[in-house]
């Protein structure tokens, strides 16, 4: 796994993110900075749909797009909207450990059976559904995926500042994923 930078003080926040909405997010969530009042969004957060995560930040502070694995490849119009209409120029892309999108293929049987018993799908249709979509959402490793998604988004939106972050579900803290 890539190295995670622990944020225990403002000095731990990389200079590139300090005094930006990304640094503010880290201060609110990790350092208990008092919540300020905002009348418009300051950044876009892309994070996994996983239920174990909750961000501590002020109302109105961020647009949030939640998707399996924090994968924004299929949410591009929403990303563009937050930038163009919402006027945010910072994105925090937040992966997390124990993500269900890693080794998704191992959950094939569970997925198909769940759609049959809980949703009332035909087994064959559930199987096709899984086989069609699983390759689009499968991620190899949580940190590698966030780094590659960060690179892709930086190319797509060159003037936007994008930070690869990580949420550890064990301590509910945010970390910066170190880039080399
Ligand atoms: Zn996840």
Describe this structure in words.
By secondary structure, the protein is an alpha/beta fold. It contains five helices and six strands, in the order βαββαβαααββ. The protein has helices at 21-31, 76-84, 108-119, 123-137, 142-156; strands at residues 4-6, 43-47, 62-66, 90-96, 161-168, 173-177. The chain is globular and about 55 Å long. The chain starts with a strand and ends with a strand. The mean pLDDT is 96.
Which H/E pattern describes the elements? Answer: EHEEHEHHHEE
Low-confidence stretches: none
Strand order, largest beta sheet: 1-6-5-4-2-3
Structural class: alpha/beta
Output mean pLDDT.
96
Key features of this structure:
180 residues; alpha/beta; 6-stranded mixed β-sheet; 5 helices; globular; binds zinc ion
List the helices and strands and how they pair.
Elements: E1 4-6, H1 21-31, E2 43-47, E3 62-66, H2 76-84, E4 90-96, H3 108-119, H4 123-137, H5 142-156, E5 161-168, E6 173-177
Parallel strand pairs: 2-3, 2-4, 4-5
Antiparallel strand pairs: 1-6, 5-6
Zinc ion is lined by residues 48, 50, 69, 96, 99-101.
